[in-house]
Specification:
disordered N terminus; 16 strands; globular
Length: 282
């Protein structure tokens, strides 16, 4: 991204992939191919009306995106815990202003032998793009998001209650630098005395280097309002690196990322957490 000009060429727009469904070797029957092409044109139109930044590692991506994402993490303290899936999953753009994400239940592996391993809760996430402009025309995004997780797994891998997460999301870019910010709440539908309520404020600061690498630093803050941790606040710094999407086949792309959360406040529920991310935009 370069301020003052629309330099979002095909090489810069890693997620702006061409329409390749038609043709003699198309994988779809004619009628289905027409429907798929109309849908994919809507996807590409929606992408063209917003900036073209990459998804941070922890902060919710402040863009509409169509991809399959699988994250893994290792949390060091108080006990080693692996999380495979990270609550991510399939993200679909049904129209130019909406995104629907269906999260696959994460699989959690505990180092402590007394804690059972197992799947976590299922989740969904909705994004609405209120205002946006691509590079050269403002380079910004403002949206209203809503997440929810549902009690599909027993504790300790599931929380046993439905949790709603309304969110305001915004981003702004200046040349090769951009900032993505989200402000959200974690609101249990029941069990508030046990789970409490939290306010979450996340920020991702990214820099595009050589059109390939996106080094970033995130601040991930949680303010505990109710529950056993009421009145406390924890903040993590998350340095990381995401590699620009490269093509696997036709519209299917791949973009990896890695980073580590580091506790910076006296109160924290864990010390460090390594995060690995695999994204497959299409």
């Amino acid at each position: 991204m370069v301020s003052g000009c629309d330099c979002s060429t095909q090489s810069d727009k890693a997620d702006a992939v061409p329409d390749v469904i038609r043709g003699p070797n198309a994988a779809y029957p004619p009628r289905e191919a027409d429907w798929v092409n109309r849908w994919l044109r809507r996807v590409d139109k929606g992408r063209s009306e917003q900036p073209h930044t990459v998804a941070p590692l922890v902060t919710t991506h402040v863009l509409l995106v169509q991809q399959f994402r699988f994250d893994s993490s290792y949390q060091q303290a108080p006990a080693g815990t692996w999380n495979f899936g990270g609550g991510k999953g399939l993200e679909i753009i049904p129209n130019t202003r909406m995104e629907v994400q269906v999260g696959i239940p994460p699989y959690v592996v505990h180092s402590a032998p007394s804690v059972p391993d197992g799947f976590g809760d299922v989740s969904m996430f909705l994004k609405f793009r209120a205002f946006s402009a691509p590079e050269g025309k403002g380079n910004y995004f403002l949206g209203l998001f809503l997440g929810a997780s549902f009690p599909s797994a027993p504790p300790p891998n599931g929380v046993g209650h439905t949790i709603w997460s309304p969110m305001i999301a915004a981003s702004k870019g200046w040349g090769r630098f951009d900032v993505q910010s989200t402000l959200s709440a974690s609101l249990p539908q029941s069990g508030t005395n046990l789970l409490g309520r939290q306010i979450l404020f996340n920020n991702a600061f990214q820099l595009k280097v050589a059109k390939v690498f996106w080094p970033q630093i995130e601040t991930n803050s949680t303010f505990f309002v109710d529950g056993s941790h009421s009145g406390n606040q924890q903040t993590f710094l998350t340095p990381g690196l995401v590699v620009r999407s490269f093509r696997i086949f036709q519209r299917l792309l791949f973009a990896p990322g890695i980073g580590v959360q580091i506790a910076t406040t006296h109160f924290h529920l864990y010390d460090h957490r390594w995060v690995w991310s695999m994204r497959f935009p299409f």
